[in-house]
Amino acid sequence: MAPAQVYIEDSLGERIWVDSPHCKTFVDNIQTAFNTRMPPRSVLLQGEVGRGTGDLGAGSSPHPSLTEEEDSQTELLIAEEKLSPEQEGQLMPRYEELAESVEEYVLDMLRDQLNRRQPIDNVSRNLLRLLTSTCGYKEVRLLAVQKLEMWLQNPKGGLCVGHTPSLAPQLTRPAQDLLMSVCMNCNTHGSEDMDVISHLIKIRLKPKVLLNHFMLCIRELLSAHKDNLGTTIKLVIFNELSSARNPNNMQVLYTALQHSSELAPKFLAMVFQDLLTNKDDYLRASRALLREIIKQTKHEINFQAFCLGLMQERKEPQYLDMEFKERFVVHITDILAISMMLGITAQVKEAGIAWDKGEKRNLEVLRSFQNQIAAIQRDTVWWLHTVVPSISKLAPKDYVHWCGPGPHSPLSWDQPGPLTGACPIPVDSSSLLHKVLFTEQPETYYKWDNWPPESDRNLMGDPTGVGSLHRVTPPPPRSFFLRLCSEVPILEDTLMRILVIGLSRELPLGPADAMELADHLVKRAAAVQADDVEVLKVGRTQLIDAVLNLCTYHHPENIQLPPG
């Protein structure tokens, strides 16, 4: 216990032996009592590059002026160097039996220092260094994070006698090291660490040098514990929707998406699910939020992983006892549709316009987008087949809402029928299956918030994708975005599952409707046929069996047949 006490006293004092290289092994042994994970030198070097270049955030700030001696002292404290085998043999935990006593003593000393009423200019840099080395304690992390923003942005902290203002030791550098230590040791995901993450999300930083370092620390936070990623994304989104919105939210979210391209979109989708379970209608706000996220993160999100996350069945009580289950399913469908359209980048749009003109530019980008849409549509049909029926029993018009060509409807634009504006089912009715397959009326996609904008809705196109087949008059205007999302290949799994849904008595898609839809999708995909794209590949004979079974005549169940 005595070595730990004198360590604390020297750390807060002149640091005569704590920072001495001759005492390094002795100090390292004392620090095993704190269970603090120190950042390796490679992480600090990344921070130095960020401090020099400043490639994130807005605004700029000069690097805090530090003397060579102070830089070396900080590195001695914070940087973990590779120990020789002899040194590793000398390093061992020596305070396991006194762990509680040491922790209590450290916390009492730190609380006493932090609770003193003193101006920020008088805060000791050595106090921040001690906090950095004791961040293995969850209470220390919680104490430190509450003052980090003030220390990080302090312009003239720690001015000492004998230093000119330009060379004055500042709190910014040790505060940056403390921030890194807090993030790297946030590894329990207990209530204290969740509070720490909540405080970290609220920190507002403007200078590039600080913002760069903050994002580097966020990456370490996300790696410290497997549950930190989901908690961070949830808190960022809730903060974005609050009245005290942090302008750094989108950069934190961008960092999270870069950190884990598979898991981060899944956690983001779970937050959108949570929003849509609220009693209040959050669809309009969710659409606007998703568009802003995609815009600010420069489309660098795994759209397929995000959409698949939206489709995952949740077993939490708030989902099992949900009051508006039908509305939840309909709104998830709307988010799925807008997600597919948000995948249209400027490059995809340019390639699509060039393709319409007969030019072959950026075809790789266009084909990648088309394959992405085909994969998401396969997943959504799976969701409608297996997950949706367990959530809510929807009426046939809500589940299907087919306004496409049928055997009893003339394929004409100037006569009342399924393809004209005189659709027998109101445009405002909810729909699922045909909405995600982009066979709905265009108004259903932009009626909520007028997105896609009118500039993308003034191009001529065919809303059903059947080309010029039996066309009598020109088609009405249709969103260019909708054309890009509908003129895609169809996967065998998508086609097979639609046929299976038609064979099911439990789902509200009859055999004739399933055959019509399958026929329509195949014709639409055939219009995309090109040498560099495979629009449909069937390798299972079961699909042919399903087609033949759907063609079998089934007498209506609601009629009485004569005996015999």
Secondary structural class = mainly alpha
Order of secondary-structure elements? HHHHHHHHHHHHHHHHHHHHHHHHHHHHH
List the uncertain runs: 50-80, 157-169, 402-430, 459-477
Query: What distance separates the N and C termini?
Result: 97 Å
Question: What value does the Rg take, in angstroms?
Answer: 31 Å
Distinct helical segment count? 29
Mean pLDDT: 80
Structure, described:
This is Integrator complex subunit 1. It is a single chain. The protein is 55% helix and 0% strand. The protein is an all-alpha fold and 564 residues long. α3 runs antiparallel to α12. About 16% of the residues have low confidence.
Strands, helices and their partners?
Layout: H1 2-12, H2 24-31, H3 41-53, H4 68-78, H5 85-90, H6 99-114, H7 125-133, H8 138-145, H9 148-152, H10 172-184, H11 191-202, H12 208-224, H13 228-240, H14 249-259, H15 263-276, H16 283-296, H17 303-311, H18 317-320, H19 325-342, H20 346-356, H21 363-386, H22 388-391, H23 396-399, H24 433-436, H25 443-446, H26 480-486, H27 492-503, H28 511-526, H29 541-550
Helix pairs in contact: 3-12, 7-10, 8-11, 10-12, 11-13, 12-14, 13-14, 13-15, 15-17, 16-19, 17-19, 17-21, 20-21, 21-27, 27-28, 27-29
Quick recap of the structure?
The chain is 55% helix and 0% strand. By secondary structure, it is mainly alpha-helical.
